[in-house]
Design goal:
This protein is of the alpha/beta class and 411 residues long. 24% of the residues lie in helices and 24% in strands. Strand 14 and strand 15 form a beta hairpin.
Length: 411
């Protein structure tokens, strides 16, 4: 694969901004100065605690949080908003969960307003993950660049969301969606995630073995681009290849060689020795094949439509926050992000305007999940409860409009 050479001068990435223009696009100052409802604690669940669930419009709740001491307080936000499908979604009991009715510029501005408020709530070392499908992901990439900065886009992730679709007739099967990972600044919490090594892959990636039985691979000690400093100078009688520079200064290369971490070929060309650490595993890349949603009848879920993979959310939470941090999902849905945050020792804030979302979250944290394929024992919560049930304390917050709804659900 060809590697580009960094330009010697001229325009750098991100210096020319690109933005979308559409009818109804508001100024940032207008978005931040909107009025909002007041929210108050209504019902503590499992003893209450620091975790909070708000039943209400998330734009309203985000404004309330921003004006209630949460500015620069939230370390991680994951959101899985509507995908502009113009569809209505129901739960497994065919009860209305939510409507995905917005599209085009209306959808873009709906989401943009919330993203602007989320940025204000994030800590300076905080991050956001925006989960969408192919219909709006590439449009919203421009909006994310506009709000957070192109240089703060850390990854554009492709996820395999389901198994092969054999019924697709006139095009390729739609089995992917996308997750945009942005940080608020260039300094952000990052705990690099790994997956365990498979033996065959380990042998393929690290084909060499030293005298101590350690597996290693040999990689170049140079990189693209000419440098006039230390890394462009001669080392051990050799200059870097034409158009390249040493990855390290000659002094550092001497240290690596003294430590036995430089391999010299029979023709005298140096390469760096990289040892395999089987205990660490393989760093996760930006194509995710192992986080499909509800793929078998024994998997336990809340029954909420569009419920996302728990292992995926747990990995995201651990990668971009630390224990004790605040994690928020303001399109909380079934509460998967909230459950993953609790299991990983984080505090959480959940927001949703759907009563079915609150029911799903109560099921997750109070009653326990159900086997996906169990349509007979739909109320048999105890039999298939998870460790989360009955342990996570949180408080339900409402405004004047949603108070009665919560009372009817929790009576």
């Amino acid at each position: 694969m060809a590697t580009g050479v960094p330009p010697k001068s001229g325009m750098k990435r991100g210096e020319v901004s690109v933005s979308l223009t559409y009818e109804g696009k508001k100024d940032v100052s207008t978005i931040l100065s909107q009025s909002f409802n007041q929210y108050s604690l209504q019902i503590p669940i499992n003893g209450g605690g620091e975790n909070k669930f708000f039943l209400g419009d998330n734009l309203d709740v985000l404004l309330y949080l921003l004006n209630s001491g949460y500015k620069n307080k939230i370390r991680l936000v994951y959101i899985d908003p509507p995908f502009a499908t113009t569809s209505v979604f129901v739960n497994r009991n065919q009860e209305h969960a939510y409507s995905d009715s917005l599209c085009g510029g209306e959808f873009v501005e709906f989401l943009r307003e919330r993203l602007i408020l989320i940025k204000e709530l994030l800590t300076d070392d905080g991050s956001i993950y925006l989960h969408l499908d192919g219909k709006m992901a590439f449009t919203m990439k421009l909006i994310m660049d506009e709000i957070f900065g192109e240089n703060n886009c850390r990854a554009f992730i492709t996820r395999k969301k389901c198994s092969t679709k054999n019924y697709t007739k006139n095009t390729y099967g739609n089995i992917s969606d996308y997750i945009m990972f942005y940080s608020k600044t260039d300094k952000y919490v990052w705990n690099r995630p790994f997956v365990p090594w498979e033996y065959d892959k380990m042998i393929e990636q690290y084909p060499c073995i030293d005298e101590h039985g350690r597996r290693y691979k040999k990689v170049p000690v140079h990189a693209p681009g000419v440098r006039n400093g230390e890394t462009g100078k001669e080392w051990r009688g050799k200059l870097p290849p034409k158009g390249k520079h040493w990855q390290y200064s000659p002094d550092k290369l001497d240290e690596l060689d003294a430590a036995g971490e430089i391999y010299w070929s029979p023709t005298g060309n140096p390469r760096r020795i990289v040892f395999c650490d089987p205990s660490k595993g393989i760093p996760i890349q930006n194509i995710w094949m192992d986080y499909r949603d509800s793929i078998n009848q024994s998997q336990k879920t809340t029954g909420y439509p569009t419920e996302k993979n728990f292992d995926m959310l747990r990995m995201i939470v651990k990668a971009s926050s630390n224990e004790g941090d605040m994690v928020m999902d303001c399109f909380a849905g079934s509460g998967t992000t909230l459950g993953a945050a609790f299991e990983a020792g984080r505090k959480w804030i959940g927001v949703d305007n759907s009563p079915e979302s609150l029911k799903a979250i109560l099921k997750r944290f109070v009653h326990g999940l159900e086997a996906y394929g169990d349509y007979v024992n739909v109320q048999n919560y105890t039999q298939c409860s998870l460790d989360l049930a009955g342990k996570c304390g949180f408080n339900i917050y409402t405004n004047e409009d949603t108070s009665a709804t919560v009372q009817s659900i929790c009576k």
